[in-house]
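ingest -> validate -> predict -> emit
validate: passed (alphabet ok, no gaps, 272 aa)
predict: started
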Amino acid sequence: MIWWLSMNELIVLKLGGSVITRKEEKEFEINSENLKRISKEIANALNERDFGLVIVHGAGSFGHLPAKRYELYKGLRNKTQLMGFSIAHKSMQYLNLHVIDYLQKSGINAIPYQASAVGILSNGRLVHFPTTIIKKLVEMNIVPVSHGDVLIDEKMGIGILSGDHLVPYLAKKLNATRVIIATDVDGIYTKDPKKNEDAEFLREINSNTISKIEEIGTSNAIDVTGGMKRKLQELLELVRFGIESEIISGTKHGILERALKGERNLGSIIKF
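emit:
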């Protein structure tokens, strides 16, 4: 007999690449300490509350470095990029399997869901990504874990699917109740708080406050998946569908667990 989850609440959780890896320009290193703690916090929340969970994790240096080196974000222009496409995907698979391993060791029924095997882009925008299997997995109390990846692009040949773009797409398709973004800062600031002492923390993000944002850095590393403003605009769109989003710290102990257990106002809230 199969035990089905009620699905009264579904959370889409994004684990930022700068949280689970050491996102530096010359490193391919998993942040084992953070990943182990995060996995335990997720497990604690799942054991205490009845909710469905889908996880999307970022690429960190594992995806961004080969994407930049082979200029995959520019589309398919030469044969050398085909090897870059393969290398970038292999790097993301390596990272994904390690994320899965930490989650499973914490007692979470985690399973990988490969974006490049099912997704299609068109001019860099995700136009096809079936979610039927994801829904069934969640109903069976299994946690699908997807990630940013390199995909086939109908117009450009190849392209990059950012985890930050996949999250709102899945949230809408799955009728999620909440989106939680775990980053390496406390939330959203008007400037990079690591570089600017006068950076102002924004408790609420809406169409008005987003114009105040000059730059937001989650690390000193390169990122080929677009600026934060564009990513925030996509989260703002979710409000129209009744889906709330909050950007929190994924590096401070206990914040993620509290958020998954239902606590609000732990970071920056996205409001319309």
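The two ends are 43 Å apart (CA to CA).
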